[in-house]
Amino acid sequence: MDIKSYRLKISEANFFLELITALEKRGNSLTHHDNPDEEASFLLSAVLNTLYSATEMLGGKQEPMVKKFRESHPLFYAGSGKGGLRNTTVHVTHVEAASLGRLPQKSPGSVRLNFERTPKLIQEKATSQGRLTLNFTPIFVVEIDGQVERIVDLVSTQIFELGKLVLDVT
User: Fold this and answer.
1) CA 91 to CA 158: how far, in whole Å?
2) Domain map of the chain by residue range?
3) Across the strands, what pairs with 143?
4) What is the pLDDT of residues 32-74, one digit of tens each?
5) What is the three-class DSSP state of 53?
6) Alpha-carbon distance 133 to 137, whole Å?
7) 147-150 and 98-100: which strand pairing?
8) Which neighbouring-strand residues pair with 147?
9) Is residue 153 within 8 Å of residue 20, measured between CB atoms?
């Protein structure tokens, strides 16, 4: 078990999440590739690999608690035939990301406000104190079993779950 490398992998995952968030907030490409949806899918592939590596740093399938954790989170760690996104995008076919103007409402009348920290890559000069600016930018999503999920939310939740796992195995 290598906790230092695990922590670096979690930092790496957060790095990729910040780039996806920057891509969302900019509303256009980060690179000369000039295709934000493809860039988001490249970053999704990178973060999926990073999360898998983080579980390897905790002992992989040889560690019973890590094995159980992977089994309880098949979306991230299962084989492609069992719905595993990482395995699918690495070994079978590229997992596509798409941009949407907003997520479909899960309950009528609900509003979703995003208070994430602005990525350093796109930080603007501070606005005057007490001023609120609402920005409506596309978000990057992946379709899972017919449901649309925001990539940043999906991965952030998984990072949180990994944090609970590391407390259990150390």
Assistant:
1) 21
2) 3-103+137-169
3) 148
4) 988 889 999 999 999 999 999 999 999 998 999 999 999 999 9
5) helix
6) 12
7) unpaired
8) 144
9) no
